[in-house]
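Tutorial, part two.
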Amino acid sequence: MAHSVQPISSAEDKTKMVLRIEKDSDGHRTTIRLIGRMRREHLEEVKAQIKDSGPRVSLDLRELSLVDVDVVCFLGICQSEGVELLDSSPYISDWIARERNREE
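Running the prediction step on this input gives:
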């Protein structure tokens, strides 16, 4: 099963970040693939996708190219709540670790 979402904030502003979400499940685990650029405006949709996916969820970040600080904090929370983060770029992984250390 695949699900795609492409939120764009306004018709006038084509420079807004675009995120595509693809969702796959093997019956035991659901993988949500985040593709493109993600920022705060996309968080509610990703939260809804995670909530609708059952208890075993992974976020595939391989094709996530750009994030903002709100997304980094959200990903850190997801990780601490048991959501597996797959194939994160070093810059995102390092940023998550820095934000987590700053909060402690």
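Residues 9 and 43 are 13 Å apart (CA to CA). In part three we will examine how such features are distributed along the chain.
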